[in-house]
Amino acid sequence: MSEPHISVRDLTMAYGPSVIQRDLNFDINKGDIFVIMGGSGCGKSTLLKHMLGLLDPAKGDIFYNDQSFFQASMKQQDDMRQRWGITYQSGGLFSAMTLAGNVNLPLQLYTQYSASDREDIIAYKLALVGLGGYQNYYPSEISGGMRKRAALARAIALDPEILFFDEPSAGLDPISSRLLDELIVQLQESIGATVVMVTHELPSIFGIASNSVYLDVNTKTMIAYGDPRELRDHSEQPVVRQFLARESGSPEEEQA
Q1: Cα–Cα distances in Å, from 206 out to 45, 48, 140, 180?
Q2: Residue limits of the ABC transporter domain (predicted)?
Q3: What are the E-state strand segments in the chain?
């Protein structure tokens, strides 16, 4: 039986008196590629920020390996975060640093590796994402798809237990997007990480997701949870079936 890696319990998210989502309850199992999805403005990225500890919940909690995040001490929270890898929609690379410098940053901050060992790890992580030999390139010197992969190399620098992605395919052409999806699956399998993604891209949802939650903008709560293929074909919620059966090429900019 699968073991929950992340548990969201009775979570309500709000900005002041304005509730974004309420009463969220779901588990993300170890090894899942889990998608947070829903219509524009439903709170997907807000949920991700809560899971990262960037925002405090109005109510409820999030548990990592059965340990409460929001009841934990700052030291315990920092220890948890060191087991995570995060990539942002824009990539989030430091433009004044080379790719090697970007990947080196978490190694320098959180490990005791020697400079020589760090160089070997940097080369290995960049090679894993198809950027072997690009250590001395700056982000401005490579394509958008390559920047996404470089950000992923930095995210896996510490061999994280959990990888978080905020719209990883945003701004990429379909071929680059598919290649990035394939890379995420390969890395998930090779390092055994649990993957949590915010995305509205149907090729990604159906291509790699093993589980998902749907946040509804109107009722302000989750109305579907499970394998997205099953939800597309059998969900009792028409809005969920419509969302998952729409044409994959339809543009939908998501701001949550």
Answers
A1: 20, 20, 32, 14
A2: 6-244
A3: 4-15, 18-29, 33-38, 59-64, 67-68, 84-87, 162-166, 194-198, 211-216, 221-225
Q: For residue 256, what pLDDT is reported? A: 46
Cα dihedral sign, 231-232-233-235: positive
Mean pLDDT confidence for 202-215 = 95
pLDDT of 90: 67
Residues 97, 153: Cα–Cα separation, whole Å: 14
Q: Furthest-apart CA pair in the chain: how many Å?
A: 56
Contact at 8 Å (CB) between 54 and 18?
no
Any residues with CB less than 8 A from the CB of 253 and at least 6 apart, and which?
Answer: 40
Q: Give the residue carrying structure tokens 């598919």.
A: 178
Which domains occur in the chain, in start order?
29-54+73-83+160-256 (3.40.50.300), 93-159 (no CATH)
Do the Cβ atoms of 44 and 36 come closer than 8 Å? yes
Residue 251's pLDDT band (boundaries 50, 70, 90)? very low
CB burial string 214-246: b at 16+ within 10 A, e below: bbbbeebbbbbeeebeebbeebeeebbbebbee
Residue 79 has pLDDT above 80, yes or no: yes
Identify the CA nearest to 36 among candidates 215, 159, 176: 215
Tell how far CA 227 is from the center of its chain: 17
Render 103-114 in DSSP notation, one character per residue.
HHHHHHHH----
